[in-house]
Amino acid sequence: MILLLVVLAVVMLLVAKSWKTMAPAALDVQDALQSGPLDDHGQSGAGDALRQGDLPRLQETREKTDAHAAELQQALDAVD
After folding, report:
1. How far apart are CA 77 and CA 18, in angstroms?
2. 13, 20 contact by CB (below 8 A)
3. pTM to 2 decimal places
4. Average pLDDT, the chain
5. How far apart are CA 60 and CA 66, in angstroms?
6. Is the separation of the CB atoms in 49 and 55 below 8 Å?
7. Is the pLDDT of residue 58 over 80?
8. CB 38 within 8 A of CB 50
């Protein structure tokens, strides 16, 4: 039982030591991700919409996708 407690204490000390060395690097990465500009991903204004929370809802996106699919189907039917 004593040996188990000693091993546990040594493991905890090693974990604490590695945590102290890794924490500053992890915080730097987190700060870099939060403060960076958001890319538009090929659509003008997408980054601004993402920052402001003005993204379309799922239903609106589904309706636009269905409308586009119908247009494509009409174009394919016209080609045949």
Report:
1. 64
2. no
3. 0.34
4. 78
5. 10
6. yes
7. no
8. yes
